[in-house]
Every structure is written in C-alpha cells, then in structure tokens.
Design goal:
The protein has 2 helices and 18 strands. Strand 4 and strand 5 form a beta hairpin.
Length: 288
C-alpha cells in the first residue's frame, strides 16, 4: 500500500512538472526575432533606388529575413516624415525601392527611414540612411592612338570636384563584371581618373558596356555610370537557345549524341539475347 502511494505521488509530480513546462516551451517557440535591416543608396545613370536587406540570427548564424515587410519614409525635417511606400523583401531578404521621385533637382542631401512594424515573427525594427548627392560622368576617348581611354569625373552637387575618392572600372559580362586595369583608382584634384583599355575583349557585334562605379561609399552611397561602346572584337551569336530546335534533323546532332546511345541500346539487347539463349540451353539439357 505504501509503495502504491509513493508511485502515485511520483507520477503526479511528473504531471505537474509537464504542465508547468509545456506552456513555457510553447511561448519560447513563438518568440519574435530581432531583424537587422541595412539600407544602401544606389544611383545608376538617372535612376535612384534604395537597396534594402534584412537578416536575423538563427542559432549561431544569420539567415535572410524572408518576406519581411517594410515602410520607407523620407525625412522632411527633425519631426516630420513622408511615407513613400511599402516593400516586401524577397526570399533572400533583399529588395529594391525606387526613390527617384522623392529627390528634387539640385538637392544637396537626403535622409530616409526604413521601418518594419512588429509582426507575428519579427520585433519592430528600423534604420536610417543619410547621404549626400554626387554626379559621376564618364566617357570613352578614342583619340588616343595607343588605346581607348575611359575618362571619369566625380563632382558634388555644386560642381566641385571630389578628390582622392575610390572608383572602380569594370566591363559588364554575362555572369559577373570583369575588372579593367587595377582593382581601384583614386580621383585626382580635378575629381578625374583616366583608365586605358589595353586588352581588346570580344563582344556580340563588337558591342561592349563598361561601367565606372563608386562602390558603397559612406557619404554618397553607390553610384554607377555605364558607357556603351563598339570597340570589341566582333563575334556572331550562333546560339539556338531562343529557337525551337527539338525537331531538328539528325544531321545537326553531334556524333557523340548519335553513337553513345545506340551503343548502349545495342549492348542491353545483346545482354538480354545471351540470357534468353542460355536459359533455352539449360531447359533443353534438363529435358534430355
């Protein structure tokens, strides 16, 4: 009798502990995450946009804050903001928001506020970006007899040159831009860099697009200017990617695609033939 009482008390204690810990585990499973939002201003030719990304810590690593919804505000004054719109980030936690209409002509600087209001998964998060405007112009000089030269000039909104600023010159390619010359160039006292193109690259119909980039500058953000040219080695596009070639004649097929499958088929049928022939011989020997 005493043992049964001890056993019942033991199970009652386990049941009480389970009832106390189960709600806590449920709450912990529903704890909201703290999202880290970063904003980078980008200017490509005449288009201005914010590159917004968000992530949160899951265990020991950071993962993208997928489908995070944010609101973008333009800071008008210290106590006044104007809502520009909403943006839902993609699965990789990144998104682009066009702010070209929010920028006035000859405006020296601007500030934006990106806010995520508290949701089922994330706590409230916000970040602010302040930047000054600059103009980056670039042209291709073909007068040099040695090699074509890219001349790029960086100036502020008041047309004053920005010296000792790091710029990059790259050639646009299919998968990733190709660096031209040195990794970086610094502007001189006139805000200018001169980059000769010493290597002639192939391009479809000789067309090549070069880009001069002020990359993730703390003051001016990212500014990119694209130069279109036809100084490349002409190549012809022989790809049939956009054409219906499934019903092409066998004459267009490579020899490997014709020989290898036929050899495999012939080998399989030959193996089956020998198996059937050997089974026939075995059955014939048993009858005899």
């Amino acid at each position: 009798m005493k043992n049964s009482t001890i056993i019942s008390k033991f199970f009652l204690a386990i049941l009480c502990a389970w009832s106390l810990t189960f709600p806590n585990s449920k709450v912990s499973a529903q704890e909201k995450q703290n999202a880290l939002i970063s904003v980078q201003f980008n200017k490509v030719n005449a288009q201005n946009f914010l590159k917004i990304s968000a992530k949160y810590k899951d265990g020991k690593k950071f993962v993208p804050a997928s489908d995070l919804e944010v609101k973008i505000y333009k800071i008008v004054s210290e106590d006044s903001t104007a809502l520009l719109g909403n943006l839902k980030l993609a699965k990789d936690g990144n998104g682009l928001f066009d702010v070209s209409n929010a920028i006035s002509k000859n405006q020296d600087d601007i500030s934006f506020n990106v806010i995520h209001e508290a949701s089922d998964k994330f706590e409230e998060a916000a970040t602010e970006v302040r930047l000054k405007f600059a103009n980056l112009t670039a042209e291709l000089n073909l007068d040099d007899k040695t090699a074509p030269v890219i001349i790029a000039t960086l100036k502020d909104i008041n047309n004053m040159p920005l010296a000792d600023v790091e710029l990059k010159v790259r050639l646009q390619r299919t998968f990733a831009p190709l660096t031209i010359g040195d990794d970086t160039y610094f502007t001189d006292e006139n805000g200018t860099i001169n980059v000769p193109i010493t290597v002639k690259m192939p391009g479809l119909d000789g067309k090549l697009n070069y880009e001069v980039v002020l990359d993730e500058n703390e003051t001016y953000g990212t500014i990119k200017t694209i130069i279109e040219s036809n100084i490349g080695t002409k190549i012809t596009d022989l790809s049939t990617f956009d054409q219906r070639t499934m019903w092409g004649t066998p004459l267009k097929a490579p020899l490997v695609a014709l020989i290898v499958p036929n050899l495999l088929i012939f080998g399989i049928w030959l193996t089956l033939f020998f198996l059937i022939f050997n089974l026939y011989r075995i059955s014939k020997q048993k009858k005899s």
